[in-house]
Amino acid sequence: MSDLQNEPQPRGAKVKGRHPVDQLEAANRFIAAEAHQKMHDQRLWDLRKKRDAQMHLIPEWEELRELASEIKEHTLDHLADYLEEFERNATANGVHVHWAQDAEESNQIINDILKQHQAKTLVKSKSMLSEECHLRQSLEKSGVTVIETDLGERIQQLDNEDPSHVVVPAVHKTRTDVSKVFVKTLHAEQGNNDVHYLAETQRETTRPYILNADAGMTGGNYLVAETGAVVVCTNEGNADLSANTPPLHIVTVGIEKIIPKMEHLAVFIRLLSRSALGSPITQYTSYFRGPRKGGEMHVVLVDNSRSTRLASEKFRAGLKCIRCGACMNTCPVFRRSGGLSYGSTYAGPIGLILSPGYNAHKYRNLPFASSLNGSCTNVCPVKINLHEQIFAWRETLADEKELSLSKRILMTSLGKLFAHPKAYRTAVQTGDKVLSYLPHFIVYNQFNAWGRQRDLPKTPKETFHSWYAKNYINKGKGDE
């Protein structure tokens, strides 16, 4: 058997209440599982390459990105108006619309709806908002059996793990990992890791739950204010089954998912799947305008700190996100450290700017899990300035004194050094000379994080400043 089949799947970050998540520790464990790390990196880079191929097939790609960004900007500027328009039109269509200020209120509303219908089983399609609100755990405490119908989400549910990616929740798992999970939970055939067999096993064991469920739930990729409709994009058709098979359909969706008109929907549909998976369109783009005949439909509009972010000029751009995962697929840190190392619902670049908004102390380390290379910004279909937002969060966390003691000491010391040019140049010249003579064990120690995985470059014979002074300033060429 190959290393990939033998190697145990690394687990995610060790989340301890409100304590800061140690993303570095979890990332190191993922990197140490070399076969999984290599597989994960390659899978996501393949998605990035497919996205690029699709981009080059559409001459107006950049115009689409610009238009999508402008639509989102306009919508956020008039968010309250469009939400009220959606409520009016959805209500006219026979939909019950609810408003939830936070995760607790959203969970309570959904619990109450299920109790009113005496519903004890709920089948649901993938929804990052429900993960954000820990909805499944809340419902299970109330005695409701919740079944994830998306293949990746079902795998993660059975393995008691959060999704590691907003689009491909189990991308960090090998087929052998999935086989082991299914053997334990679905009584699958021991050692059979054929992907078709595993997918069939999940489908056959989930289908009875769908057919007999008391209620179904979906998220929403878009809300169309003009028609009061909910649009859901999937590749498995499970959202259609969850919404249409049970008599009760509940939609849980963030208030930022609103768009003004039907004509705007086409722009986002063209961008979404191409950015996420490198495919021209999702297999199913479902348009729910009202309840099924004889059924009932509820839409729960959830704030959960979104209005606070809306009021922030610095961080409001994060509300434009359409959850395509393109920034994750291109991010070198995410690809090599795995999504579960972030210890938050949203990982990768988008997680670095969203998670601290929910709890700055708990997620204070995440904005530093980035090289600020800007690739995430380059691929974002709605042109969120992700790398600039990540840097802004670093500044904000420093201002709020949320940096660790070691970082505060280091940054304060460096700040004083950089503020005095002569002292800085002297330190650089001295350091370069000293490094050339120090023994290896002194340079490469536990305090030199850079040297843990790479050698330091050879020190130059002279600094740029001294070279410039010698060749230009001293020769009177400083103005050239």
Question: Could you describe the 3D structure shown?
Answer:
The chain is α/β, with parallel strands linked by helices and 480 residues long. Among the domains are: 72-307, Rossmann fold, CATH 3.40.50; 420-473, no CATH class. The chain has helices spanning 3-6, 23-32, 34-56, 61-77, 79-92, 103-116, 128-132, 135-141, 151-158, 175-185, 195-212, 238-244, 262-276, 306-310, 326-330, 332-337, 348-358, 375-379, 386-399, 405-418, 421-435, 440-443, 464-473, and strands at residues 96-100, 121-124, 145-148, 215-218, 222-224, 229-234, 248-254, 258-259, 284-288, 296-302. A 6-stranded parallel β-sheet has the order 1-10-7-4-2-3, with helices on both faces. It has a 4-stranded mixed β-sheet with strand order 8-5-6-9. A hairpin with a 4-residue loop joins strand 5 (222-224) and strand 6.
What secondary-structure arrangement, pairings included, does this model have?
Blueprint: H1 3-6, H2 23-32, H3 34-56, H4 61-77, H5 79-92, E1 96-100, H6 103-116, E2 121-124, H7 128-132, H8 135-141, E3 145-148, H9 151-158, H10 175-185, H11 195-212, E4 215-218, E5 222-224, E6 229-234, H12 238-244, E7 248-254, E8 258-259, H13 262-276, E9 284-288, E10 296-302, H14 306-310, H15 326-330, H16 332-337, H17 348-358, H18 375-379, H19 386-399, H20 405-418, H21 421-435, H22 440-443, H23 464-473
Parallel strand pairs: 1-10, 2-3, 2-4, 4-7, 5-8, 7-10
Antiparallel strand pairs: 5-6, 6-9
Helix pairs in contact: 4-13, 10-11, 17-19
Region (Disordered): 1-20
InterPro entries: 4Fe4S_Fe-S-bd, 4Fe4S_Fe_S_CS, FTHF_cligase-like_sf, Helical_ferredxn, LUD_dom, LutB/LldF, NagB/RpiA_transferase-like
Organism: Commensalibacter intestini
